[in-house]
Structures are given as structure tokens and as C-alpha cells.
Design a protein that fits this description.
It is a single chain. The protein is built from 8 helices and 7 strands, in the order βαβαβαβαβαβαααβ. It is of the alpha/beta class. It has a 7-stranded parallel sheet with strand order 3-2-1-4-5-6-7, with helices on both faces.
């Protein structure tokens, strides 16, 4: 198994991409610390599935926009599991609003969850990784980290900042054999709990024919596609890759789609 003997901390693990990353890692032999903001019942269901797969699994709810709660999450994970070899900063919010309607509170909340949390968590897990001279930190970006789009000022700015943080960690901690990379999901078939965040997209639902024409591979991505990318970056198979991105976007924005 590709992650046997390793322990991973995954945020936003109660559903969608985070849930699938947890299950994928459990199948590959990792022990797990899983967190969510408020979906404790769903988080426990994911943990139960991971335990059935043989993973020693710790769960905790935390508001990762808060530095103290991030540090407590790492401390409790270390107490429960002994170490953290892999950090997957997956939790995020993605409100889509015109820039002129974004409040100061909106701006800081998005940055707190989408960017600041990765700094807090990385800073907390890095000392142990340095001591063991091994580690993999994975940030989950998105198409907002590749290109700007209307109504995404907060998300695009935060995810672009995350990419900068990932590169800085990669540069500073490479001498300790600690790697940092980012996975950018494209249009992924997930369940959205906040449809009001996606007013523009709600008029053109994911998977419609016009949207698929803009994706060279001709399909939506799946949560398994993203989990597999994270598995690669978490495993020793990517031991010579750091400060890089995996754009899991079906070719969108990167190559030209076929035209009639």
C-alpha cells in the first residue's frame, strides 16, 4: 500500500473531495486525522468507513480560520496518532459575488478559511516533519488559482495567495525533505450546499453541453480524480516533485478544445 506507515491530516473531510481523499488514503494504508467545521455527523460517518478500511482515525470539528483552533487540531491529532506526515489543506468556501458587493467581513472570512488556515496548519505540523526529515503538504487550489473569472475576487485572491505560500514552503523546507505542492481541481461533480454562492453557475449547471465543449477531455472531473492526484503527491512516488501544481482540469485553460 502506497501510504502504509504514514499519517495524514485532512481538512474539510466530511464530504465531497475531502471525503474521497480520506477514503482513498485509508485504502492505501494511512492513518487519518479528519476535520470539518460543523458536519460532525457526516465526519463520523466518513471516519467509520475509514476505520472499516483499517485506518486508525481521529476526528475533530474546528473553525480553521482561527489560528488557535488550528493549533489545537494539530496538537490533538498528534496526541491521538503520534505524528503527521501529510497535510491536505482542502477546506474552503467559494462564494461568487461581484467585487463591489463584497464586504470587508466577506473578504476576511474567505481569506481566513482558504489561505490563513493553511499557514496556521503548516506552521504547526512542520516542526515534526523537520525532526523526521520527511513530509508532504498539499494545498487544494482550483481554477481560481489559474485564471481570473467574474465574481470571484475573494476566492481568486486567496487561492493565488495559497499558491504563493505553497511555493515558499517548498523552497524553505526542501533541505528537510519536506515537499509542498498544489492540486487545482477543475469542474468537479460535487454536491453544493450553498447554491446562492454560485448565481452565475446556477443558470448554467455543471455538466451542461456548452460547458463540456470547453473541456478538451469532454467530461466533468470526479472526486476520485482529485483524490488520486493527492495520493500521488502524498506518496513516495512523487518524491522528486515540490513547489509544483497538478492541474486536474481536463485540459481546460491549458490546451485548446477541439472545434467543429
Amino acid at each position: 500500500m502506497r501510504l502504509e506507515g504514514k499519517t495524514a491530516l485532512i481538512t474539510g473531510a466530511s464530504r465531497n473531495i475531502g471525503r474521497e481523499i480520506a477514503l482513498c488514503f485509508a485504502r492505501e494504508g494511512a492513518d487519518l486525522a479528519l476535520s470539518s467545521l460543523q458536519s460532525s455527523n457526516e465526519l463520523e460517518e466518513v471516519a467509520a468507513e475509514c476505520r472499516e478500511l483499517g485506518a486508525n482515525t481521529f476526528i475533530a470539528t474546528a473553525d480553521i480560520a482561527d489560528g488557535d483552533q488550528c493549533r489545537r487540531l494539530v496538537e490533538e491529532s498528534l496526541d491521538a496518532l503520534g505524528k503527521v506526515d501529510i497535510l491536505v489543506s482542502n477546506a474552503a468556501i467559494r462564494p461568487h459575488h461581484p467585487l463591489l458587493s463584497v464586504t470587508d467581513e466577506d473578504w476576511h472570512r474567505v481569506f481566513g478559511i482558504n489561505l490563513h488556515s493553511s499557514f496556521y496548519l503548516a506552521k504547526a505540523v512542520l516542526p515534526g516533519m523537520m525532526e523526521r526529515e520527511t513530509g508532504s503538504i498539499i494545498g487544494i487550489g482550483g481554477m481560481a488559482a489559474i485564471t481570473g473569472r467574474p465574481d470571484t475576487s475573494t476566492v481568486t485572491a486567496a487561492k493565488t495567495g495559497l499558491w504563493g505560500l505553497i511555493r515558499a514552503i517548498a523552497a524553505e523546507f526542501a533541505p528537510y525533505n519536506i515537499r509542498a505542492n498544489m492540486v487545482n481541481p477543475g469542474t468537479i461533480d460535487t454536491t453544493r450546499r450553498n447554491p446562492e454562492w454560485f448565481a452565475r453557475e446556477s443558470r448554467r449547471p455543471d455538466g451542461n453541453s456548452d460547458q463540456l465543449k470547453r473541456i478538451p477531455l469532454g467530461r466533468q472531473g470526479t472526486i476520485e480524480d482529485i483524490a488520486n492526484a493527492c495520493l500521488f503527491l502524498a506518496s513516495d512516488e512523487s518524491s522528486y516533485i515540490t513547489g509544483d501544481q497538478l492541474n486536474v482540469v481536463g485540459g481546460r485553460y491549458l490546451v485548446a478544445a477541439a472545434t467543429d
